Amino acid sequence: MFQLGPGGDWVSWIVWFLFLMVFFFFYPRLMVSQIMWKLERTARDLELMSDKSMKFITAQISSKPDKRLKDSVKRFFEFFMINPVGLDPYGYVPKLDHMLKNQRDRFEYFVKQVAPKLDSEKRANIEMGLAGGITVHEIAKIVRHYVEMVRQTKNIQIAMVLQMQLPMIEKIAKAMFRGTKALSRGEPIGDGLGPLVAAELIGSAKTTSIDDVIVARVPMDGRTLLVMKAKGPGGRIGFPGKAVMKVIKKHKVSRIITVDAAAKLEGEETGSLAEGVGVAMGGPGVERSLIEEIVVKKNIPLDSIVVKMSQEEAIMPMRKEVKDALPKVRQSLKRSLERTRRGDIVMVVGVGNTSGIGDSGSTVKKVSDWVDKYDRRRKEMKKGRGKH
């Protein structure tokens, strides 16, 4: 700018002044135009992902979907849940629990309506796929809302804030889109690490069902393990909090160990393991609150084992690094059992989505083979894109 500055004569000064006036007048508009081009392209990409999610789920329900089915799925993509009032925190958990139960009932009722011929496991997969597709749809709508707001107001501040957030938004949306496909197909996802650990521990033991949660009695290192996981192989998370409360009322549990996937920080390795205390469980917090409430009354120690992965990896098809963490989790479990006495009853809860993961040890080999195959395919595709 200094090199282009005016010379010594008054004409140069006038030209330079006019240039600055035009520059300061048009530059913000030029910036908005450039940013709007990027925002509009991203909004269209997200809307395309939403449409593809809708079509994919519809195809999973029926190979020849009619207009009524398409309209029903499209209408259900606008489904929402209003959180209860939290001004008075007392009694908030039961109210939220009631709303979440109503939400699950609506999903179950809708899938039974549009897919009455599918079995219960396939319907569970469709329910999970719908939840993922609705999230993709919601992200697309929110981005479109702000794009139109910028278009109408020409507000460069809003445009720049949205532009700065786009890489993260796109990353989450793409991961959720892949997760929607995996859940609809009944494929294992990263969040299935906990159920996979539980299935390995269950082996061929006899199981019972409580609130969509499988419970098995398994001996290990002189202790009795009460192993729990959501019922599979359909996509479910069950009601682990309620199931834990019911089991504790029947058995004298000396320790509870929860195993779950955990969000890693950037720079940490996927599949790395960490040990701690407390209830390792994500979600809205209702089920975790129920467990915490009863362990405080019974004075039961809480151990947690987590396998780290990014938020995107948790909802995408399971990575090989996550599956390979199983031996490390078993070693960690043995270390936790050392803090108990022989003959004690210890509860092990495999927390997470059990999509593609059955209720016995035989499922571990199937999941392992599927993950290895998926990993090879993913690397080949990545290598192919690198060549181009």
Quick overview of this protein structure:
The protein is an alpha/beta fold. It has helices spanning 10-61, 67-76, 92-114, 120-153, 156-185, 193-202, 240-250, 286-298, 311-315, 320-323, 326-337, 362-387, and strands at residues 207-210, 213-220, 223-230, 253-263, 273-277, 302-309, 345-350. A seven-stranded mixed β-sheet has the order 1-2-3-7-4-6-5.
Describe this structure in words.
The protein is α/β, with parallel strands linked by helices and 388 residues long. It folds into 2 domains: 12-184, no CATH class; 190-387, Rossmann fold (3-Layer(aba) Sandwich), CATH 3.40.50. Helix content is 59%, strand content 13%. It is built from 12 helices and 7 strands. The chain has helices at residues 10-61, 67-76, 92-114, 120-153, 156-185, 193-202, 240-250, 286-298, 311-315, 320-323, 326-337, 362-387, and strands at residues 207-210, 213-220, 223-230, 253-263, 273-277, 302-309, 345-350. The chain has a 7-stranded mixed beta sheet. A hairpin with a 2-residue loop joins strand 1 and strand 2. Helix 1 (10-61) crosses helix 2, helix 3 crosses helix 4 and helix 7 runs parallel beside helix 8 (286-298). The protein is elongated.
